[in-house]
Every structure is written in structure tokens, then in C-alpha cells.
Write a structure and sequence with these properties.
Blueprint lengths: L4 H8 L15 E4 L8 H16 L1 H8 L18 H6 L2 E8 L5 E6 L1 H4 L4 E5 L5 E6 L1
Parallel strand pairs: 1-2
Antiparallel strand pairs: 2-3, 3-4, 4-5
């Protein structure tokens, strides 16, 4: 279920570290199994988690980023001149709440130096990083 793009803008404050929520396809949504209903509680949890991500963006991205990602063959090192700079320039391309277990997934990228590649991240319901990898 796509979420309200206007509310995403309100929560993220137009922060350039979040992708534009009016893009197609939209990267802001709640994922549920076909037979699963998305409740008002799920929607409220989504807004709460997006707010947390917005307020703690730098810390969460630093937590998910591994310096070895800089050595991935798809990174233009002329535009991302160091691992630290690459980390500082990452953008949240998608932000997804999984309704059944309240995990939060997101893809981090920067189209200027990653050329279609991204860092896939997953946090638990208590914001413990479960994994991050680049592809």
C-alpha cells in the first residue's frame, strides 16, 4: 500500500536525503501479504518510523554503511571521493514497513555516483540493524 505522499513530505520536511515521494514508482509504502490487511495501527507505525528515520537519518545511515561499500565496482570514485563522503551523500530511495513483523527496509543510493546500484538495509522493530549489503 502506497502511503500519503503529502504526509511523507511533511514528515521529512523536504530533506534532500529522502527521495521525492511523488515519483513513480513510489518508494514509500507498507508491505503486506496478499491476504493480510493493513490496519490503522500499521499506518500510524509507519509514520512513527518515518519520523524516527527523518530525525536520526545520519546515525541510521552510518550504522548501515560499511566502508567496503566504497570499493564496489559500480561506484564512481571521481564523484564519491571517499567512504565518508559516499556515506554523507546517500539518499533514502525507499522506505518500507513490513506489516507482519514491523521491520523497516530501505534502499540507500545516490544516482550521481552509484548508477542504479543501491544499499539494501533492514532494521528490526526496535531499530537494530539486521543487515545491509550493496548490489
Amino acid at each position: 500500500m502506497d502511503v500519503d505522499a503529502v504526509k511523507v513530505m511533511d514528515i521529512t520536511g523536504g530533506n534532500s536525503r529522502f527521495s521525492f515521494p511523488f515519483s513513480d514508482p513510489c518508494g514509500y509504502y507498507i508491505w503486506a501479504e496478499e491476504d493480510e490487511t493493513i490496519s490503522d495501527i500499521d499506518i500510524q507505525e509507519y509514520w512513527k518510523r518515518l519520523s524516527y528515520m527523518s530525525e536520526n537519518m545520519d546515525m541510521l545511515v552510518q550504522q548501515a554503511f560499511k566502508p567496503e561499500f566504497y570499493n564496489f565496482p559500480g561506484i564512481d570514485k571521481g564523484l564519491a571521493v571517499s567512504p565518508a563522503e559516499m556515506c554523507r551523500q546517500l539518499v533514502v530511495d525507499s522506505f518500507v514497513l513490513c506489516a507482519d513483523n514491523k521491520t523497516t527496509g530501505c534502499c540507500l543510493s545516490n544516482e550521481q555516483f552509484m548508477f542504479g546500484h543501491f544499499i539494501d538495509c533492514l532494521w528490526s522493530d526496535s531499530w537494530e540493524l539486521l543487515y545491509s549489503y550493496i548490489c
